[in-house]
Design a protein that fits this description.
This protein is mostly helical and about 170 residues long. It is built from five helices and no strands.
Length: about 170
Amino acid sequence: MSPDLSSSPVAAASSAGRAWVVAQSLFLIALGIAAPLWSGQWPRSASISIGSAAFLFAAWTGISAVFRLGRNRTPFPAPRPGSTLVTTGIYARIRHPLYSAMMAMGLGWACFWSSGIALVVAAVFIVFLHAKASFEEKLLSARFEDYPGYADRLPRYLPSWRVARRGSP
């Protein structure tokens, strides 16, 4: 007889992971529908520029992250079995570039369509993604002993472009 793993931490993380992904998908669908449905709520001239800039940031950040993660990539908060902690490339600048990309994409989409409703959905989506990242960081800290130090050194979502001072490491 095999042991009952339904109440194990692995099963709990897996179940929670599915819930996070379903909720994330629903947010993306809501953004996709809300923006064109309730568009034109303010002049579009500057809004298109802001939305396009956000999309460019999202594309650069997201594509960089996907290529750098390689086989480690998963939509779920828990790391894949056998995965490694990636701290190079875009991950040497920010801890959660895929979440950064989705945040920028949501804001960019709302701005591009000049949609206040979509902007509210995007703001709530950002809060959701922050909660998901916090949950994920607990799992990463438990899995990778180097993660807490890595997390202390880097910002979560936006790169820090500080220039090192002379004499500093």
